[in-house]
Structures are given as structure tokens and as C-alpha cells.
Amino acid sequence: MTAVDPRDAAEVPPPAPALATPPVAGPVEGPAASPVAASSPAGSLSPTPTPPTEGVLGRTYRALTLGIISVVSLIAFEASAVNTAMPAVGHALDGIELYAFAFSAYFTASLFAMALSGEWCDRGGPLAPLFTGIATFGAGLVVAGCAPEMWLFVVGRGVQGIGGGLVIVALYVVVSRAYPEALRPSVLAAFSAAWVLPVIVGPLVAGTVTEQLGWRWVFLSIPVLILLPLTVMLPALRKLPPRKGDAGMDRRRILLALAVAAGAGLLQYAAQRRDWVAVVPAAVGLVLLVPAIVRLLPKGTFRAARGLPSVVLIRGLAAGSLLAAESFIPLMLVTERGLSTTLAGLSLTGGGLTWALGSYTQSRPRLEPYRERIMGIGLLLITVSILAVPLVLFGGVPVWIVAVAWVVAGFGMGLNISSGSVLLLKLSPPEDAGSNSASLQVSDALGNITFVGLSGLLFSAFGGASVDTGGTPDVTNAASGGQPAAFAAVFVAMAAVALVGSWVATRLKPAESGLATVPSGGAKTASAAHPRTPSAPAER
């Protein structure tokens, strides 16, 4: 699983592992109908939307829903395949020192692309950024699959990130504009359900392909699937109402996102060098990153201000902690316990299934009044699960403990991520759904970049750069003491991050009458004059 994320594919801030809702003004006629109530009170956190006349798979919405599920499934399969194949990639390209970069490069590039996609969607609609993103995602897969060296593989992952960033925000906007409010939790639950089959077969297929044909085919085989979602979605997307207004893109916001991505990249580079030369890129990275990210996200995000800022913050903490831990699980099982690539990847399968179950659980109408509490419970489940994983570093502990722990973590993420997307859409007026969805995904990507990068630094600092990616038996590696300590450092640190997220979950309700009136630095935040509408990984 990967938080876009993107579940951060299974959730749409529209944003896995779904992310509710003023009443609609009259019956909904189809995707072109406005999802916003003309008279919904801006501050209602427990709206009573008019029941839809059909479900997300009814005649009106069927083609669009199936197309969205196809896109999410494609991203889900890629995420599962990458996690499974990465130990073999690092070994074949002799690039274990860049192992964490292969994950963080995706999210660094997607961070810029998300801000661009939000502005693009708000000004011209989601069609162009969605299709451009799908094509770019496929191009990145080709670059990674053909890479002769690890640095070029990392570049390919970056290109994938640009495509994924464009896609995930566009999907959020599609959900906001095409579906009535009452159907959005169901659509987001369908996003999570779209991960089920890829998560079941992805590790098995990727492991088998890696062992029998080579890791390159794990990447080169996916682009052929791109035409399916394009074909299914296009007719329905063309029916969306044209965007009103002549305002151009907010170039300031796009440049801020570019500064954040560049700063994050420089910090990752500095963390890998670990010498005095690293001070220069680290300083430049901080100068670019800190002022830009403060302006890019809603004001009060980093102090966990109540309402929308905390919704945005908790996404980064949840997605980043889980992805960072998950990225090192296959490597740990291969190098410390001697599992095959296929078996190591299969240990993550259960988490994908329960992520969908958690997303379905949070979508039940009777749980709507407890949404904020549900998100806190989800973070606590993630914390306990991450802490359980390094127990297998002790030789007497069975390796299936990892699979059980990830089943629990997946359910926690399904509860948390999907609910967060629903809350964001509820606190966002329709004209700002793109920008606020982009803020949620920027937080997701920033959390992934930060905590995967931190995990890579801890891993190297505790001796992890010397692990044998060929799968040395566990007795040999355990005897050295250095590599187990490197993995333990990663998992303990990420459990601490998830625990902080459980505290942030206590601040999700806006301070006054359910209103999110916190002014925003870069992301637009709904004011009391606007009715609230819900919004809504692709990498989970």
C-alpha cells in the first residue's frame, strides 16, 4: 500500500486508503447536476442531504464510476508491484543507497503536480489534467522499466509522480462535480474497493514476474492497461458542466509548490550525503521548503488549528507514517528472514483488503456523527501495527506476525483516510474543491516525502546501507546486529508519527458552530458565506 498514495488512490479528496455534505437543491439529474445545496447552512457538520434516486452504479453514473475504479485499480496495481519488486531493483541496479529515493521521488514530483492540477481543474475542469496525468504516469513506467542505472530508475519514478499528482486531484474534482453529496462517501468507498483485486494479485504477479522474467516487466507491462480507463471515462467526463469564470491559474500557488518540491528534493539529497558538503543543499532546501509550504497549506496546519487545517495535517501524518513503514517491510523480510520476493510482497496483501473494509465501514450513515472519533481510532490502530512489525527481527517470532499487523493497519487507514476526504469536501465550497483537494494531497505527498526520507536517513545511520539484497538467511544478518537495528529505528520512529496523528484527530471539529473559517495561506478555505460541500490516494 502506498498512501495517493496515493487509497491516497483509494480515497478521493474526492485523495485510498475513501475519503458528506449539505442538502442538494432539488433532484439530481445526472453528472452535470450541481452537488451543492443552494440553501445549505455553511456550518452544518451533520447535513441531511436529499436521498439520491440511484446509486453510484445506476444508469446515470455507471460509466463514470467504472472508469474511476479502473484508474484507481491501475494505480493500485502499480503501487503493490513496486513494493514487491523494489528489493530486486535495488540489487540488480546496485542502488541500495538510493532505495528510499525510489519511493520519495514519486511523491516529491507529485507534490508539484498536485498544486498544478488543482489550479488547472478549478480553471478548466478535470478532463485535461486527468488525461494528461494518465499519459504521463504511463511514460514514467516506461522510463523506470528501461532504466540501466538506479538514478535513471529514480527519474522514472519522478515522472510517474507527476502523472499521479495530476490524476489524484482531478479525481477528487470529478467526484465533487459529478456526484451529489449523498453519493460521495459511497464513491470513495468504491475507490478503496478498487484496491482489493490489485492488492491480492499484485504482489503475487509482481513477485512471479520478477523471479521468472525480470523486474523490468513489472513496470513495462502496466502501460498497456492505460487505454481502458481512458475509453470508459471519456463520454461521462464530457458531460460535466463547463467551468464558469475567466480567472487564470494562480501562478503564485504553482510556484510555491515547485519551491516545496525542489526544497524537499535538496533535503533528501543532503540526507543521503552525510558529509559537510551536505550543509549547502540542506540550507537551500530549507529556505525553499519552509516559507513555501507555510503559504501553500491552510493557515494553522502546522499547529493543528481546529477544522480544515487539522484535516489536512492528519493526512500527511497518517499517509507518511504508513508508507515509510510499508516501504521497508519487503526489504526486511527478504534480508533479515530470508523470504522470497513473492512471499515478502504477499505479507502486505491483507492490508489492502482491510483498507477497503475500513473505508466501507466509515461510509455507513449511522457512523456519520462519529467521523472525527473514527479517524482517531484509525491512527491508534496504525500505531500499534507499525510497532508490531519489528518483532520479527527476533528469530523466534513467526513472520506471519507482519501480515497480521498489516491487516490491522490497513483497516485503520481505511477508517482514517476516507473519512478525512469526506470532511475536506464538507468543509470546501464547490469553487474551491480543486485547491483544497490539492492541499490535502500536497499534505499527503509532503508526509510521504518527509517520512520516507527520514526513514532512509535512519536506515543508513544505523547501518542499513550494507544489507544484502540478495536475500541472505536471517541467521547471518541477525548475528551482525547492525541491520536489525536499522529496521527497528525506522518502525519505531514511524509509530511515533502515527501516535502524534491520533492526537491531531481530537482537533478535527471546527472551533465555532462547525465552521471552517480559518484563513488559508495558499489553499482556499470556505468562509461562512459559502455552503459546504464534501470533497475527496493515488497511491493509497
Automatic annotation (TrEMBL):
Subcellular location: Cell membrane
Transmembrane segment boundaries: 63-86, 98-116, 128-145, 151-175, 187-209, 215-234, 254-271, 277-298, 310-333, 339-361, 373-393, 399-425, 445-465, 485-505
Region (Disordered): 1-56, 514-540
Extent of Low complexity compositional bias: 18-47
A Pfam family assignment: MFS_1
Membrane-topology annotation of the record: Multi-pass membrane protein
Name this polypeptide is given: MFS transporter
